[in-house]
Amino acid sequence: MYEKFKKAKPPTFDGEMNKSKDAGAWLLGMKIFFRIHSYYENMKEKVATYGMKGKVNIWWEDLKNVKGITK
């Protein structure tokens, strides 16, 4: 499964809104990615958050801590 995932190359997002890839474009890219590739619902969060880089990854980790999310 991991090899298939690595080859698929899901979209990434670094949290920088002034770049060509903003949050909306990343979300649309993830929706399209999930239409093309079959992942169980419980895997989609892991796949999506794998593509978070830089500032958005820090934001996600902080949000999980605030909300008490342990995944």
In short:
This protein is mainly alpha-helical.
Overview of this structure, please?
The protein is mostly helical. The chain has one domain. It is 63% helix and 0% strand. The longest helix has 14 residues. The protein is globular, with a radius of gyration of 13 Å. The mean pLDDT is 83.
Could you name the key traits of this structure?
71 residues; mainly alpha; 63% helix
The portion of residues forming beta strands comes to under 5%
Mean pLDDT figure: 83
**Major sheet:** none
Can you write the helix and strand succession as a string? HHHH
- How many DSSP E strands? 0
Layout of secondary structure:
Layout: H1 2-8, H2 23-36, H3 41-50, H4 54-67
